[in-house]
Amino acid sequence: MKQELSFQTLCLSSLSKVFADQSPADAPFHRASALLGETFAFQIAYTANQMLKQVRVHVESSLSAPVTVRSIGLSPSEMCCYPDHDDNVLRTTPGLYPDPLYPLEDGSVTVMAGQWRSVWVDIELIGSINPGQYPVKLRFESKEGEHLGEETFELEIIAAELPKPRLIHTEWFHTDCLATYYKVDIFSEEHWQLIEKYIDTAVKHGMNMILTPLFTPPLDTEIGGERPTVQLVDVEVTGEGDRYAFGFTKLKRWVELCLSKGAAYIEFSHLFTQWGAKHAPKIIANVNGEACRIFGWDTDASGDAYRNFLKQFLPELKLVIKQLGIEERSYFHISDEPTTDHLESYLHASNIIHEHLSEYPIIDALSEIAFYEKGIVKRPIPGNNHIEDFLQAQVPDLWTYYCCVQYKHVSNRFFNMPSARNRVLGLQLYKFDIRGFLHWGYNFWYSQCSIKKLNPFLVTDALHAFPSGDSFLVYPGEDGPVESIRLEVLYEAQQDLRALELLEQFIGKERTIALLEEGLEQPLTFSEYPHSKEWMLSIREKINRAIAEHAVK
Prior knowledge:
The chain is of the alpha/beta class. The chain has helices spanning 175-182, 189-204, 249-260, 304-324, 343-357, 370-373, 387-392, 419-423, 425-431, 485-507, 509-517, 533-551, and strands at 7-13, 31-36, 39-48, 52-61, 67-77, 95-103, 108-111, 117-124, 132-141, 147-161, 168-171, 209-212, 234-238, 243-247, 265-268, 283-287, 290-295, 330-331, 363-365, 379-381, 399-401, 436-439, 475-476, 481-482. A five-stranded antiparallel β-sheet has the order 1-3-8-5-6, covered by helices on one side. A five-stranded mixed β-sheet has the order 2-10-9-4-7. A hairpin with a 4-residue loop joins strand 13 (234-238) and strand 14 (243-247). Helix 4 (304-324) packs across helix 5 (343-357).
């Protein structure tokens, strides 16, 4: 006897994670509000007792805004967390985790028998949209046209627009990973086209600062090893070997591309090696007509040779920055993640850079406040698990970051973490007036220390090095980036931040924080915050209601 078809749907918020082998335990989510200028998202989960191919998904809405439906795919994770993880996680086992967002093929999905899956629905509230209530209906039909199920979401559009972002946000852009994965020549036209697509996606998701490889960035590179050469500045050795000529054509093209896509800031790559500033980055030069490496791991950063190089290079770079009109948009790095063991070498490198770039902001990720207290670093970027000391020291224009090390109590975005833990970051950045946010992995598709190239659809933990979700936010699609739910939720966090900034314009900072913390047992910090998605969703609704109340006056 043929089994009777059973098809189920469930409307959920963007903060749910739907696992294939588990019925969603979250309550249905059918209504919310949003501001003009933001992208609002929700999900429809579905399952059936039979396998169904080419189930068509139809959208019905009178809303004059783009509505995009994507299928949430599954990514494998062998290393989803460290053994001593905290309790604010969804799972601790290897397996398949919901993450990549795929365009629907022919507007349809495949329903796997007995599995739960979901679609992600984006509503981009741009253009001329009248405030009011708008139902958005999604219908599921078999390829024969049979009605299988439907869900309706009610979205209220509030008559207020998100302000422009004040936060500076960078997720490090790994230019070499694009060339390696897509097998194109570095800075070929094919490579430039990919660079453009990935920058475009980054900027559209709130990343308004782009890591710019003056020379191959000395980041996550095995000591003595090399990453593929992605050097925007051409160098030629002239004269007796201690004179240099520089070409900036590729750098100018890069900057102009970033600005054309809406990036507001240029983040020039580190001028000394990671973990101590003891060596120069890899620098390739034309020597008597041949491309040769003239600096690298064998270069003493404190030696005369590299100091002489920088003495010639940095003044010319400053002229280019002025020509491009980006004096107020340019940021520099010395070395990533130094510790107190590196105070001496970092200080020496810092002195060299400040001889030439003292008028520019120089930022570095580090978590030991001694660098700031000794005046070595004026713009430190501490991890969000070490930020309290820097807040107490009242560091001006403070930034923060997280990576694989920040996995206890604080916000982060690993596969196995609830999305509310990703999104709460926006509230924290607002309360503490954080100027910028940095993360090292927009598209790092190598193993740790860049030793092996990887397929990020198959290996998501940098080859058992970092918990899945740390090293990249986008996947390499056939002709451009495949986005992730972690990327979208991180952007929601930034929209929450901007909504709070808008509310502050009406009622002031003190009252805005009071509203944010209303009903909490203790004040919001980077390590203390409600963990539930229900609270996260309710606080955004409370912010929207307060904005609506004051915007119409």
